[in-house]
Amino acid sequence: MDKHPEPPAAAIRDLNIEARVPIHLDSSSTSYYAWKTYFNLVLLKYYLTEHIDGSVDGDNMKGDPEWSAIEAMLIRWFYQTVSKDIFHTVVAKDDIACAMWTKINALFTDNKLQRLVFLQQEFFGCHQDNSTIDEYCMRLKMLANELHDISNKVSDDLMPSTLTAGLNEDFNNAASNLTLLRSPPFNASSRTSSLRSAG
């Protein structure tokens, strides 16, 4: 299979990365899974993965103006979509895009035990409070995705039971009835109607 050529730097120079990666990565948040997913989609779409996957020796390519221009844009994209804390943690003179990508990802994957404890506390302590059903379900789903990303998949049985445990009093009847369903739906289009009908 022929390799797709990467686009020239001019073709992606004016790309609005914040529109394509609408996640601001913060070390204290649970946005890593979504941030990485959005970024991977951009890298795949524009055939830029070789800049960050280590398949090409970026240090040997520094003399190539086109390659260097794309490298600079990628690093700028990383800086634009991370918090100041992360920026100051990973910023380094003369880093190539692959090194920067690796350092950012390592912040969230190297210390899996600490991250696992944090995410599990967030997941099991999650309550609806003043949020809507959709917002509450999305928060749980996001936490489940983060746990899955560090090889701790939330089981299909655990997801609905955790959801019902954190519902507001207004949904007490729905919570009781929802646990009787064999496989309560958890997608965006059906979760609200299911809870209402269960009540």
Terminal CA distance reads: 55 Å
Compute the average pLDDT. Answer: 80
Q: Encode the helix/strand succession as letters.
A: HHHHHHHHHHH
Counting DSSP H or I runs of 4 or more residues, the number of helices is: 11
Structural notes for this entry:
It is built from eleven helices and no strands. The chain has 199 residues and is mostly helical. The chain folds into two domains: 9-109, no CATH class; 112-198, no CATH class. The model is unreliable at 180-185, 188-193 and 195-199 (pLDDT under 50).
List the SSEs and their pairings:
Elements lengths: L8 H4 L4 H4 L11 H14 L19 H16 L3 H7 L6 H13 L2 H13 L8 H17 L8 H8 L6 H7 L12 H8 L1
Helix pairs in contact: 7-8, 9-10, 10-11
Keywords:
single chain, mainly alpha, 199 residues
Short characterization:
The protein is mainly α. The chain has helices at residues 9-12, 17-20, 32-45, 65-80, 84-90, 97-109, 112-124, 133-149, 158-165, 172-178, 191-198.
